[in-house]
Structure formats: structure tokens, C-alpha cells
Amino acid sequence: MPARIQVPAQAKPGDVIEIRVLIQHAMETGYRVDAEGRNIKRNVIHTVICRYNGEEIFRADTSSGISANPYFQFTTVAQASGTIELSWIDDAGVQESERQQLVVAG
Amino acid sequence: MNRRTFIGSVGVLTLAAPSLRAQTIDLRPMINTITKGVEARKARVHFELPVLVDNGNSIPMTVKVESPMSAADHVKTIYLLSERNPVRQMATFHLGPRAGRAEIQSRIRLAGSQHVVALAHMADGSFWYDWASVVVTLSACIDET
Q1: Which residues of A touch B89 (CB under 8 A)?
Q2: Does pLDDT of A87 surpass 50?
Q3: What is the pLDDT of residues B13-28, one digit of tens each?
Q4: Which in A33, A93, B65, B133 has the greatest CB count within 10 A?
């Protein structure tokens, strides 16, 4: 699993809920060298986007200033049950995404 | 000076050093890279970083901005700016009224002891900031092999 998304088990409409995400990524800075002294090419996630039922609710432009295996916690207002989708792109052009279901009732 | 007063004075100097440095640093050049001359005020933003960390590779941080997060009055963008990192603009967070609250947590990398600024850009165009000073005993990026 390339990422973990944590949302509350259940929320009421209008609740401000916390979304916590953890992405597995080395966030290689490009300043390190390998055992032979060669530079290790930079490869960091530069964009992280979170969508709630298709609508963007959070976006982060990131750099090597974010730690390896990036962690983000942010909030959103619960509206309707649906999907929280996190997607991210790194310097190598690899785009990945992860989904989590959110139940809104009450 | 006996032994006890000497130890006492060294302790005071060590504790006072970071705050003295904090008073002399001018954060305006850092902030101006984003604001382009628009005045940023030190209020409304609450930026939390540990005072001392052993390892610069993963430092927990929290940014909170006082804002109703309504359609008319909300935080549009939060910038994390580093004084000494090779990449000065560490991260940019884009928010909107759907966030409900302007509060973000993450983990950052720092190349040595420095000041870090959290700068918030509001929907009305105003800028607000807060800063934190961190002592890093083992820095990320540069020294690490």
C-alpha cells in the first residue's frame, strides 16, 4: 500500500473532520551520494492533492523540505458520504493515488 | 567567582543565546519573496515547532490560522519558508472554505538550526505570519550520507 488515509469512522453533516495521510516515499533530496560517491538523483513528491467526491479540498506543493514518507493532517467539512481520494506526483513523473470511504450520517 | 556562580552564569548565557539571535534576525527578506512588498503582520498565525531536535530529517510541525474559513473570509495559502534550507520555499498548502478550519500538521526537514516562517495569504489579500526557531543537532540534506 503506497499510502494510508485515516478518516473518522462516521461523521455528521457539517462536522469539521480531520484527515490524516501518510505516503510511502523516500523524498530523495538530490544532495546525498551513494557508496561510490555518485549523486543520487533528486526525486521528491512535488504535488499532493486531496479530493472529496471529486472536488479538491486540499493541495500541497512540496519539496525536499518535507520529510521522507510525508505525513499531512488537514481538515474538511463533512457533507455527504463518499470517497476521499489522495493523489500525488513525484519528480520521476510517477502518479499514484489512494482512496478511503467516508460515511456521513445523522 | 566561585564554582556555583560560574555554572549559573554559563547556564544563563546558553539559554539566552537563541533569543538574542532571534531578535537580531530580519525575517523580511524571507517573507518578501512571497509578499512582493505587501506588508505581512505577525498575528493570527500560530506556528509550532520543537525548540530543539536531534535529527533534522523529520520534525513535526503545526500551523493554525485564526480564520472563520467562510466563502468571503478564508485562508487561501499557507507558505512554509526556511532560512537556511537549499530549497527555501519548503511547502505551499492551498486551502479553501471547505477546509472548515485552517490547521495543518506535517513533518519537515531542516538543514541545520534556523528560523522557519509560516506565512498565510488570506482571501482579502492580506498576509499574516508567525515564526519559530529550531536548534538542530544533526541536520538533514547536507551533512547526511
Answers
A1: 63, 65
A2: yes
A3: 555 555 544 456 789 9
A4: B65
Residues 91-110 of B with CB under 8 A from A: 91-96, 98-101, 103-110
Q: Is B63 on the interface with A (CB under 8 A)?
A: no
B43-B89-A27-A58 Cα dihedral, nearest 10 degrees: 50
Q: Name the amino acid, one letter, at A74.
A: F
Q: What are the residue ranges in chain B where pLDDT is below 50?
A: 20-22, 144-145
Q: Which residues of B touch A67 (CB under 8 A)?
A: 57-59, 106-109, 140
Q: Return the residue of A nearest to B92 by Cα.
A: A61
Cβ–Cβ under 8 Å, residues B120 and B75: yes
Model confidence pLDDT, tens digit, residues A42-79: 999 999 999 999 999 999 999 999 999 999 999 999 99
Residue with cell 499557507: B78
Give the chain A residue whose CA is nearest to the CA of B94.
Answer: A59
